[in-house]
Write a structure and sequence with these properties.
The complex is a heterodimer of chains A (about 400) and B (about 240).
Chain A (H helix, E strand, L loop, with lengths): L5 H13 L13 E5 L11 E7 L2 E8 L7 H4 L5 H8 L7 H16 L5 H30 L2 H22 L8 E2 L2 E2 L7 H24 L2 H7 L7 H6 L5 H4 L7 H4 L21 H25 L18 E9 L2 E9 L7 E5 L1 H6 L2 H4 L5 H11 L3 H5 L1
Antiparallel strand pairs in A: 1-2, 2-3, 4-5, 6-7, 7-8
Helix pairs in contact in A: 3-4, 4-5, 5-6, 5-7, 5-12, 5-15, 6-7, 7-12, 12-15
Chain B lengths: L3 H6 L6 H14 L3 E7 L3 E6 L4 H11 L4 E9 L34 E9 L4 E9 L5 E3 L8 H12 L2 E3 L25 H5 L20 H14 L8
Parallel strand pairs in B: 2-5, 6-7
Antiparallel strand pairs in B: 1-2, 3-4, 4-5
Helix pairs in contact in B: 2-3
Classes of the chains: A alpha+beta (about 400), B alpha/beta (about 240).
Chain lengths: ~400, ~240
């Protein structure tokens, strides 16, 4: 490996050592500086936020990322296409299956193949189940940040039913790695449909429970109503997506507006929006989205078409030269992959556009002028996964 | 995507909605639009000159109506001098060409910045590209166009070394402050891979018994074997 100089090796070693050091100066001339994180429970992982305070009020706030940067964009360049799905499973670890789908779809676009209908329906099914597993945890988690412990345990309890179904279909609870270029690894197991419908019943009960327990709670409303308001125009400028955008009154859902090769258009469901744009709206929209998702899952289970689950693809997957962008409406928002292929076994470059990265970039804007306890509720309501920010 | 069946049925499909976007850009920017590409029913690419980058942003937002920002990033078109980093550390570096071949909408330089926004009313997105000279990797910031470009520009700065003029806080986003080099450039080695070679290549070798019936796959596999045999040639960079 003559091409690597000693200097580069030294730089690598230095960078590894620097990981353990904190490299920010704390200024004390204006107000007080408060460090939040990286291990604060409200940060869903390791997001660090530096708040400058005037009394209890936030003057400015600066998120510090990189505690979980794994360099997936670089790593994809040295993997083959089927190997990439293993990596991208770990971007948003609560809705893993949903991460695989846009990448597989982008590869399929470049190869000019399309998965058979049954595979598309099962993809949509598992996609929606990842969403339910992901967002039901959000609902409990949001309540936890307001100070209500019970809801979080209910969320963990009921999410288990969905995870069990994902596990029995794919073999993996958190990282299914089930999607393949051209279709799926396997068909659904026997009796899966019945069990899934039962799980959806449980989730609907969970939603009812949360509505009475959390949404109607006076303290919850006082802590979230009118807090962290994001107007629609600002939301679009910052590239917010998913429930955060719909909570600002923007009627945009990629599942309806650009259902790239998946089966959302085949079933009957609604896009939920809320005009307020505050923390409460973001909670409410997500809670309603779980209900809609259970409806989608039920209808998909009923109408599942028969047929093969894999299109004819060569054993060694070489993707023709070209560029493709495919985005889908993931649990956290719009997630897209810009895949550039040069006709090799692996991608030339993959730009991963994750929802949380854009969703969190609005934090300095929205946290200006709020009080410290509200920072926690705003962060909770924006709902991010650290792996989804840092990639 | 799901619609191509319809589009391809209309033979050499013309995507009028996306052609209109290119025409709007040409009408506003004139010669500053130096390249474009449309994949009917899927996507549109437009390449503009560096001088008109910010103006192109305003056209994208206001004239084309793409108010929702998606991302901004950089492409390094140089083929990686380290190949796929799948070789044994005892072998020499793989024989990789240094020819720069750019993608849709063309391009003349190694580095290209590309950004994307989409329109809620037209229900389509536009990818803008711009060439950057290797000696002068700087570009006007898009902050006045989309506020959300802030972190994307910081990321592009630390990962590729592109400077965005007018950006007020162009500091590292992910990496430690004293990190040297630009990790996403193709010339930056993936050192973890050089320390311990990647065993994954074994997985994609063809099974001997499957070599006959599948028409396409064995041919590809042979081509790979030849490429591996050439791997001991002199490094080209």
């Amino acid at each position: 490996m003559t091409a690597i100089t000693d200097r580069q090796k030294l730089a690598y070693a230095n960078a590894q050592a620097a990981d353990g050091r904190v490299n920010l100066e704390f200024e004390t001339d204006e107000g007080m500086t408060l460090n939040m994180g990286p291990q604060h429970p409200a940060t869903h992982g390791t997001l660090r936020i530096i708040l400058k305070l005037d009394g209890e009020q936030v003057i400015s706030c600066e998120p510090v990322m990189g505690y979980m940067h794994r360099g997936y964009e670089k790593l994809t360049e040295v993997r083959t296409y089927p190997q990439v799905t293993t990596l991208i499973n770990r971007i948003d670890w609560l809705g893993s299956f949903a991460n695989e789908v846009p990448f597989i779809l982008a590869s399929e676009t470049l190869m000019g193949i399309e998965a058979p209908p049954r595979a598309q329906w099962i993809r949509t099914l598992l996609f929606e189940m990842s969403r339910i597993a992901n967002i039901s945890l959000f609902v409990g988690d949001m309540a936890l940040h307001i100070g209500a412990m019970t809801a979080a345990f209910y969320a963990f309890r009921d999410r288990e039913f969905v995870l069990n179904q994902i596990e029995s279909a794919t073999g993996g609870r958190f990282h299914p790695n089930f999607d393949r270029i051209g279709g799926l690894k396997d068909d659904l197991p026997k009796g899966w449909i019945t069990d899934t419908k039962a799980a959806m019943e449980t989730i609907r009960d969970f939603c009812d429970e949360m509505e009475t327990l959390v949404e109607g709670n006076e303290i919850f409303q006082a802590r979230t109503r009118g807090i962290g308001v994001i107007p629609a125009d600002i939301a679009l400028q910052f590239g917010l997506s998913g429930a955060n955008l719909r909570a600002s009154g923007v009627d945009w859902d990629l599942r309806r507006d650009n259902p790239v090769g998946l089966a959302w258009n085949e079933v009957d469901w609604n896009v939920v929006t809320h005009p307020d744009g505050d923390s409460f709206a973001r909670f409410w929209v997500r809670l309603q989205e779980i209900r809609e998702s259970t409806r989608i899952v039920d209808q998909l289970c009923d109408g599942l078409p028969p047929g093969p689950i894999m299109a004819k693809v060569p054993r060694i997957i070489k993707v023709p030269e070209g560029e493709a962008w495919v985005a889908t409406e993931n649990p956290l928002g719009e997630m897209g992959y810009y895949v550039i292929s040069k006709g090799d076994l692996g991608p030339f470059r993959v730009k991963i556009r994750t929802a949380s990265f854009n969703n969190v970039s609005i934090v300095p804007w929205v946290c200006r002028g709020v009080y410290v306890p509200d920072v926690v509720t705003i962060l909770a309501s924006l709902y991010f996964i650290l792996g989804d920010i840092d990639r | 995507m799901s619609s191509p069946e319809v589009d391809e049925a209309a033979a050499p499909a013309v995507d009028e909605a996306r052609q209109t976007i290119i025409e709007e850009f040409s009408a506003e920017l004139g010669d500053a639009v130096v390249g474009s590409h449309v994949r009917p029913g899927d996507d549109v690419w437009i390449r503009v000159t560096r001088q008109s980058w910010r103006e192109a942003g305003f056209v994208l937002r206001d004239k084309a109506g793409c108010r929702a920002f998606e991302f901004l990033s950089v492409i390094d078109w140089l083929p990686s001098p380290f190949g796929k980093n799948e070789d044994s550390p005892t072998d020499g570096p793989p024989n990789v060409s240094t020819e720069i071949k750019t993608g849709y909408a063309g391009g003349d330089t190694r580095f290209q910045v590309f950004a994307r926004a989409h329109s809620l009313t037209r229900k389509l997105g536009v990818t803008l590209k711009v060439d950057l000279d290797e000696d002068d990797l700087s570009l006007t910031t898009w902050l006045p166009v989309y506020a959300g470009v802030n972190w994307h520009e910081r990321e592009a700065h630390e990962m590729f070394g592109v400077t965005f003029e007018g950006h007020p806080h162009l500091v590292k986003l992910y990496l430690p402050g004293d990190f040297e080099g630009y990790p996403l450039r193709k010339t930056f080695p993936l050192l973890a891979r050089h320390v311990k070679p990647w065993p994954g290549l074994v997985d994609v070798e063809p099974m001997p018994e499957e070599a006959a019936p599948e028409g396409e796959a064995p041919a590809d596999a042979d081509a790979d074997a030849d490429a591996d045999a050439d791997a001991n040639a002199e490094p080209s960079t």
